[in-house]
Amino acid sequence: MKAVLISMPDVTPIMIHERAIHMPNHGIACVAGNVDEGHDVFIIDLNRKRSSIKKYLTKHLGKIRPDIVGLSSMTWQFETCMKIIRLVKSLLPDVKIVIGGYHATLMYESIAESPDAGDIDFIVRGEGEEPFRRLMNALAGNDTFEDIPSLSYKKDGEFVHNDRGPNLNLAKLKMPVRDKRRLTWGYHSMFSRVELMETSRGCTRDCNFCSINHMYGRSYRTYSIERILADLDYLYIKKKAQWVFIVDDNMVLNPKWVIQVCEAIADRKYKGLNLVVQADCVSMAKNPEMVRKMAEAGFKSVFMGIENGSEKNLATMNKGNIVDEAKRAIENCHNNGIMVIAGLIFGLPEDSEQEIIENYEFYKFLEADTSYLQMLTPYPRTRIREELLKRNLVTNKNDFQWYNGLWANVRTKYLTSEQLQYFFWLHRQKVMGWWEPSTFAMERGGAWVRVWKYAIRPFMKFFYERKTRRLGWEGRYKDEMLRLRLMNVFPDLEEYSRKSSSVRWEWD
What confidence score (pLDDT) does residue 505 get? Predict the structure, then answer.
């Protein structure tokens, strides 16, 4: 059997321009790596082919002639996913289509009952390595659909949903595919080669805006240290990666284990290898020795979901009052030479314009090195979505293409969606302004930070100040929102849309 696994082309420039970073999809690489011998599997990351999707897929699918095509998408990518499925079906009418990833896991029942179901043959829910491995074998006649946990398949034209299987034993998983079977290439962060890996899966925190528990349950599992080192060796030696993003949901939940991992990595003495990870600020605040060991191992940057400076808003998100821990976590990182990306969320029910301003000011108070700023998004199956629906605060319930963190799909007690969208943008410009590298960032960030501060930023400031004088704040806002609206529009896929592309944020 031959399979092609495809990730979506949709991107978000929440932290940096969408062209500055192109990373491979780790999920489909793991699924591909665990297919049994005797089958051929290939990977296509469409974020590397955004301007030529139809041409690229036509060429490679025609050459490979796969028996099955698998597609993974987030909720906000699913409309594009269906367009690609229809394109694939037009090229290969007899090919089997399987979908997986977060949206398929969260919404499999709704998908199975929707008009889209006619174009889909299988749905893989949760961790995909084992059900997809067995699905390939079943299509070859060596297994049966009925016996594969976490698989949805069709019987007499209707979907049957097998029971969800247990979480996988990570010790039994093979390495992800990163060789020539990965047909796309050129992954980078700024001007450096980048690769992805994982050291653990799951998170035991209970944030009500997050859907990770639907993927893994409220669990936390770790890979062996031997596996982690073998993976890093491959990325460093074979792939010559300069940056490795560790995709764990929350790596630092077991500080003793993290210290052991970091000591083992430090003993390898990788030169020029930079590690990035996401972590909760409570663990980073309470375990300074762990942070020190992370720095010794080569961790150069940490993303922390701090979310908000308001005690009331933190309680709404079930985060607890973590302001003091956030400040201490950032100090621990800076004391050990680690840059911090602070994640903040806007658009909570109690937010007025003043609360938005105060949350931006809170970011400046934290003295983090850069930010990851998002709108509160009512993702399917999250507890906060149900709470917001009960309060009639969700203004866009079903058009999921706007659920990428950039857009206001909710209102607050004091602001309409349109006002929330505008103030979120406006006060980012007025309160935060253009990124000002801290002394720490100037010392640790490399040459690109100085290029930004002394060359790119002055030019950009001049250009946009001139634009603001010409158009005013509202005119500039409309112009920039138009660019964002069109960012994930792919003209060569529009003929495969079942509905006219909806357009939000229209103005008089």
Answer: 41
For residue range 427-437, list pLDDT tens digits in order: 999 998 877 77
β-pairing, 339-346 with 370-375?
parallel
Question: Cα torsion at 53, 72, 7, 491 (round to 10°)?
Answer: 30
What is the per-residue pLDDT for 17? Answer: 65
Name the residue among 263, 294, 259, 265 with its Cα closest to residue 278: 294
Q: Give which of 24, 105, 90, 79 is closest to 54, Cα–Cα.
A: 90
d(CA 304, CA 341): 6
State whether CATH 3.20.20.70 applies to domain 187-380: yes
Question: Mean pLDDT in the chain?
Answer: 92
Query: How many secondary structure helices (H) and strands (E) does the chain include?
Result: 18, 17
Strand order in the sheet with 2-7: 40-45, 2-7, 68-72, 96-100, 122-124, 151-155, 158-161
For 417-446, the DSSP string reads: HHHHHHHHHHHIIIII-S----HHHHHHS-
d(C-alpha 16, C-alpha 370), whole Å? 10
The residue extents of the domains of the chain are: 2-161, 187-380
Mean pLDDT (whole number) for 337-343: 94
Structure-token match 């079930």, residue found? 318
Q: Quick check: 315 and 353 in contact, CB under 8 A?
A: no
369: nearest Cα among 290, 458, 455, 276: 276
Distances (CA, A) of 412 to 235, 307, 315, 380, 400: 46, 17, 16, 19, 19
2-161 to CATH, choices 3.40.50.2300, 3.30.70.270, 3.10.20.30, 3.20.20.70: 3.40.50.2300
